[in-house]
Design goal:
- By secondary structure, the chain is an alpha/beta fold.
- 30% of the residues lie in helices and 24% in strands.
- The chain starts with 25 loop residues before the first helix and ends with a strand.
Length: 650
């Protein structure tokens, strides 16, 4: 048999990734491991993945871009062959601009087809650096400077988070930046942008001039070569740059295909942001490595209200076989009626990024007949750590089996809340540790690596969990109290530092308040210096001025008499979260009472019970004839909240 080679590339064209067997238990994972990894996985780079898929699937659709959320509108489609050709052109353009294996290509784009060219063409040439467009200019400059970005690929419009104006402001502030490439919005007329400044060029114009059948550099990419810099934290005070090797990303794709059973018959809607590992690796690279058609739902993705409102109609039209979204999006979709849409094509529903609330899991299954399978992923593991495969139903919080060739441990916490060296028994909670082929290559700044690994080189995840009788991982919380708003990780310290600067504030603590759409919204509690005074409105304005990123600005400030503390003098945040939930429920109850005309004297009593339940107690005698309607409306209004509530008569 004659092997096929690309011009100037020594590795023969191989096969796309295909699942070796259906995975339904850890025994199946172990069966996969009977073949040595070096024999099971011979692909060395993400470029090879697209080369193999391009040759295998040719004219089959790889990417489908939805111009709008209207199911009647025609999409833009690229085949696997077209995607590979454009990746070649993009890589060759970047090579011509002087990008080498050690140079970073920063990307500031919304959801669009060109993002995939920036990602995979960037990795074939140098190191791709996706950026969160919601970060402030100051943080973006710091990230690009730390990564020594040479080229910035940016969206040529301000219609999405003001990206083009932001790119133009960044130009002169990053010492290593030589070129800005402008990506025209879809369907823009040629030349519509007019003359561009020196050092700025049209992405598609330069790309189209390049060969589309090979890498002109002739680069032979090693698995240890760095493919990407992903920033962790996103909305934290100081994002860190995590280095991904080609080998780590390739392993994530291969292992995801094996455990989740992906193949060329699959179709998925990828609504995750493409600056986030979930959108880039498990949802894109893994899918495209196996021939799946990936749908991009408009530049705004699932932030597009039209997309959310029409989601089930889009499912009926495009017939995706899987649904994958963060719990907050699932919560929003639970409020969208099917309205007769046929969603029978969906055979696998998966979530990650935050622990799934049992109430939401049950509601989703009740409304749509879809069991929600959970997975665990993190930036430090190239996007995926554990997966609950199709056909395996687990309780909420169960994130599934470890990947093949991976080691997983759960250890007790030490007195400082860090990982100890004592492994706990199955069923006992502790911190989750991993060793795996897709563990990241450390942070760009070596100082950031100190807490990432244990002394014996296990990745310390910061996640708390336990292993069940089927050897599946179950998550119970986070050792760090991040607030997760629509998939954005918000460091509470950013908010606490801002409000703590107010002279009247003695103590303060930020937590997430439950929200039906965002999952959590940042709020902050404060105690005042004895004798000092300040209104909650004043403190909120003071804090908002000092928090850079819009999603991290607190929704409200609550002044309380005393701060709940542990017996060792630490602020006890679980109680604050319960207090925040009570305030949210109380506000919802008040709105329902006003809408029904319930008199103040008959309003239900709202109480917290422990740290995970809010009770709403209706006085049926006082409510009288309105009691039944009140209970019905409260049930409807409170059900979407990702927090346990109970309505009862008192």
């Amino acid at each position: 048999m004659t092997e096929k080679y690309d011009n100037n590339y020594s590795t023969p064209v191989g096969a796309p990734f295909r699942p070796a067997l259906p995975v339904r238990s850890l025994a199946d994972i172990r069966k996969l491991e009977e073949t040595p990894l070096e024999q099971a996985l011979t692909v060395r780079s993400t470029y090879e993945i697209f080369r193999n898929a391009g040759h295998a699937f040719g004219n089959k659709t790889a990417l489908t871009f939805l111009r709008t959320g209207n199911p009647a509108d025609e999409p833009i489609r690229w085949s696997y062959a077209e995607l590979l050709a454009r990746i070649h052109q993009t890589a060759n353009m970047l090579h011509t601009l002087g990008v080498g294996p050690g140079d970073a290509v920063a990307v500031l784009l919304p959801g669009c087809l060109e993002y995939h060219l920036a990602l995979w063409g960037g990795e074939a040439t140098g190191i791709v650096q996706p950026l969160n467009p919601l970060l402030t200019d100051e943080k973006l400059v710091a990230l690009m400077t730390a990564g020594r970005a040479k080229v910035l690929i940016a969206y040529g419009s301000d219609s999405e988070s003001g990206m083009w104006s932001k790119a133009m402001r960044l130009r002169g502030q990053v010492p290593t930046l030589t070129t800005v490439l402008r990506v025209a919005p879809h369907d823009e007329a040629p030349g519509a942008a007019g003359a561009l400044p020196e050092g700025v060029a049209e992405f598609d114009v330069l790309r189209a001039a390049q060969p589309d059948d090979r890498l002109v550099s002739g680069r032979d990419i090693a698995p240890s070569d760095i493919a990407a810099y992903f920033h962790t934290g996103g909305t934290t005070g100081a994002p860190k740059l995590a280095r991904h090797s080609h080998g780590a990303q390739v392993f994530t794709a291969w292992a995801s295909v094996q455990v989740a059973g992906m193949n060329e018959n699959g179709i998925s809607i990828n609504g995750y942001p493409l600056f986030h590992v979930a959108g880039v690796l498990p949802a894109s690279l893994s899918s495209l490595s196996a021939g799946v058609e990936v749908i991009i739902p408009t530049p705004s993705l699932l932030r597009n209200k039209e997309v959310l409102a029409n989601y089930w109609k889009l499912v009926a039209k495009y017939r995706p076989t899987s649904l994958s979204a963060v719990p907050t999006v699932l919560a929003a979709l639970a409020n969208v009626p099917l309205d007769g849409a046929d969603i029978s094509s969906i055979t696998y529903c998966r979530t990650g990024a935050a622990v799934l609330a049992p109430e939401l899991a049950a509601r989703f299954e009740r409304l749509f007949g879809l069991h929600v399978h959970e997975s665990l992923g993190m930036t430090e593991m190239a996007g995926i750590s554990t997966i609950t495969p199709p056909g395996v139903d687990g309780p909420a919080g169960c994130v599934g089996f470890r990947l093949p060739y991976m080691q997983m441990r759960v250890v007790a916490l030490d007195e400082n809340g860090n990982a100890s060296d004592r492994e706990v028994a199955p069923g006992e909670q502790g911190m989750v540790l991993f060793k795996s082929p897709n563990v990241f290559s450390g942070f760009v700044d070596p100082a950031d690596n100190a807490k990432a690994f244990t002394a014996d080189s296990w990745l310390a995840t910061g996640d708390l969990g336990w292993i069940d009788s089927e050897e599946r991982l179950n998550l119970t919380g986070r050792s760090k109290d991040l607030i997760i708003r629509s998939g954005h990780n918000i460091d509470p310290k950013t908010i606490e530092d801002a409000l703590g600067a107010h002279p009247a504030v003695q103590l303060c603590a930020a937590v997430g308040a439950p929200d039906a759409y965002a999952g959590e919204l940042p709020v902050i509690f404060a105690t005042l210096v004895p004798g000092a005074s300040a209104t909650e409105e004043e403190l909120l304005a003071f804090t908002a001025e000092r928090v850079d990123e819009a999603p991290a600005k607190p929704k409200w400030v609550s002044v309380i008499e005393t701060m709940p503390m542990t017996n060792v003098g630490k602020i006890y945040k679980p109680e604050l979260r319960a207090m925040a939930a009570r305030q949210v429920v109380s506000a919802t109850v008040a709105e329902v009472c006003v809408s029904l005309g319930v008199p103040d004297a008959a309003r239900p009593v709202v109480k917290t019970e422990g740290e995970s339940l809010v009770r709403v107690l209706i006085d049926n005698a006082a409510a009288g004839a309105l009691a039944a309607a009140l209970q019905e409306q409260l049930q409807k209004a409170l059900e979407p909240l990702p927090f346990k509530t109970r309505i009862a008569a008192q």
